[in-house]
Amino acid sequence: MTETTLLQEIDNIIAQIKEIPASRNYWLIRTQSGEFYDSFRQHKFVAIEHEQISLYEVNKILEKNGKDTKAALKELKSLSQKKYPDDRFGLIAGQVMKFVAELKKGDIVIIPSSNSEIISIGEITSSTIPELTQAELLKTECPYKKRKPVKWIKDIPRDSLDPFLYRMLQAHQAINNITRYSDIVERTIGNFYIKGGEANLVLEVQQNDDINARQLFGLGWHLLDYSQDFFDKLKLELSVDEIEVKINLNSKGKIQFKAPNARTLWLIALLTVAVNGGGLKIDVKGFNLDLSTDGIIKKVIDYQNNKHDREKVDTLMKNMDSLQIKSPDDAVKMFQQFSTNKNNPK
């Protein structure tokens, strides 16, 4: 396999991943202290209260003012004051505006259960608010008509939540823009993704005890050295020097690598999985990856079996074992999807 063919195979695999747009917004939506959490999850939607302001009235205001959002919000505040004269009408108008006009298809939403014991993350699947019958409202056991459909992605117990997201949970309004936490949310959703033209690889450290500095920095050094040596032996014009790193560790935690070249990080992810998987076969959620197959996987196993390179593998494996590094299985899923699509009849 030539260098050009090898890189093309890597590009074909990476092409399976849908790039996350840099414009994506992130929202925390409350569930009335968990009262509607189960309804949101089971029936796949999020909703907001303030039923005295109808969707018809909001849409009429938005259509009238076009792209002038300030004028629309001013008019909506005036309407809110009439509907809720004894309440915080300005806050209510702002919440309704955010939900109806700003919460869009592709945005990420986070909802907490009662006492925030579980945090659920999902993606908005339509910007349009559906018209519901009374029977449909009763079925979902939620009276709110202003709602948007969601594809739920992940449920996370509170004790497994990234510590930086605890600050997010301190926001108590019905809907809160938390886009400033976007990087943390994305690395919570997946361990390999591309956003805004930049690839991200997240390694999860699962060790509960205090982390030894030599082990931590040794992991980074040996992983990058091992990867660069692999690139050089295959004559791939890739460099680990372009990689940036973020570390968020409090015993358990995450090490996040960023690079403009997705090829570099995907190969590092694959090498990490190979080392962590013991060399020949990896089983991730029922998918068996045999590292003795042709192509890039064959190159990985040949490299690992080389006597000189085996020393690097053993050293890296010790570092990974000591920190209990979880394999970045999203990279494996990409290979699985590529293999499946390649074998499907055209």
Taking strands numbered 1, 2, ... along the chain, how are they ordered across the largest sheet? 2-5-4-3-1-6
Helix proportion: 40-55%
Low-confidence stretches: none
Gyration radius over CA: 24 Å
* Sheet of most strands: 6 strands, mixed
How large is the share of residues in beta strands?
15-25%
* Record field, number of beta strands: 13
Number of DSSP helices?
Answer: 12
What does this structure look like?
The protein is an alpha+beta fold and 346 residues long. The protein has helices at residues 3-14, 37-43, 55-65, 69-83, 89-102, 134-140, 182-189, 213-233, 262-276, 296-305, 307-323, 329-343; strands spanning 26-29, 45-48, 108-112, 118-124, 146-157, 175-177, 192-195, 198-205, 244-250, 252-259, 281-284, 287-290, 325-326. The protein has a 6-stranded mixed β-sheet, sandwiched between helices. Strands 7, 8, 9, 10 and 13 form a 5-stranded antiparallel β-sheet that branches. Strand 3 and strand 4 (118-124) form a beta hairpin. The chain is elongated. The model has no long low-confidence stretch (mean pLDDT 85).
